[in-house]
Amino acid sequence: MAKHRLSETRIKTLPVGIHSDGDGLFLRVRKEGSRQWFFIYRRASKRTELGLGGYGQGTAPVSLALAREKAEAVRLRLARGDELSAKKTFADVMDDVITVKGSGFRNEKHKAQWSMTLREYAKHLHKKPIADITRDDVVETLKPIWGTIPETADRLRMRIGSIMDHAKARGLYFGDNPADWRGGLKDLLPARQKLTRGHHAALGYKEIPAAIKALRAAAGISARAVEFTCLTAARSGEVRGASFNEFDMKESLWIVPPERMKAGREHRVPLCDRAIEIVKARKEMSITDTVFPVSDTAMVKALRKATGDESTLHGLRSSFRDWCGDETTHSRDVAEAALAHTLKDKTEAAYRRSDALQKRRSLMDDWGKYCGNNAL
Predict the structure, then answer these.
(1) Range 335-349 burial, b when 16+ CB lie within 10 A, else e
(2) Residue 285 CB: number of other CB atoms within 10 A?
(3) Max CA distance (Å), the chain
(4) Bigger pLDDT: 350 vs 31
(5) Which fold has domain 205-371?
(6) Can you give the residue ranges of every domain in the chain?
(7) DSSP string, 144-163
(8) Rounded to whole angstroms, how far apart are CA atoms 93 and 96?
(9) Would you give the DSSP letter of residue 290?
(10) Is the model's pTM score more than 0.85?
(11) Nearest 5°: phi and psi at 314?
């Protein structure tokens, strides 16, 4: 069957019905005027139809060129012998992801919250074929809670994103993730309110690698100080006051003395490879004992230049904490220890002091790797 039968001009005048562009790609024109792309293929006697999105519809319209690109991606997968499915709904994939994610959660409460958020607040998506989910669908799902419970709304956005990433990995969805903030949602929903912890505006953790990439591309001490702050999940004041004699490079440790800690106790911070690299580079260039001789204002300016929004330095700690809970199997206690939070339970605190350093080292190494994704 010949390909490329349609044209942008012809599409606008097509009557109601199904029209072929060739080699499995079709456009369905409905009575109400909507136009939907879909791909049809057969395996033995089984006919399968894959939705590829709407033409000229919503906030993520699929042009003729993009539909052909998506169709070609399907053909390549079929040529490799991959199995594709058209019947999976968002709820089907959601259940699969909850099962996979849930098996890695040690905290039952967090597992229940992850599931509840999607089951309660993503009902608008549940019955939709996963292949047909658009950015407009995500917007309509988030709008009812975006202004009233902003933190839950952003967690929901990120969890929807996880569902879509899972679907893409399985060949059930093609195209950009419709829940990606920088991919278009930032222009369709009110900014920053969703990412607020008290008065500390924070990046969603999925935006951290892009921010780190921008920071690494920037010259100057301020950008290095912000990156180091993110990698160590430290308070900005602790970073600005750091001196070279606080670092044990042989053990890859930053030992912050009690007088510089909010809780008044020494805090040992395991350093990932990139954090060590930053300290070594600063020592070679520095003419003082202060590692990062910069102001808080300069650091905030560097961060906001990298992110393009009103993010705060303290908010980086929230980003780290959310990532720990959403994307890792590291325990809550280890995450809280990494943030140097005070525990009320004395027995738990004593256990942490004797056992948590190596666990925190593993956590901070994982965080360093995550932050560095796509940063080089």
Answers:
(1) bbbbebeeeeeeeee
(2) 8
(3) 76
(4) 31
(5) hpI Integrase; Chain A (1.10.443)
(6) 8-79, 90-190, 205-371
(7) HHHTTSHHHHHHHHHHHHHH
(8) 5
(9) B
(10) no
(11) -65, -30
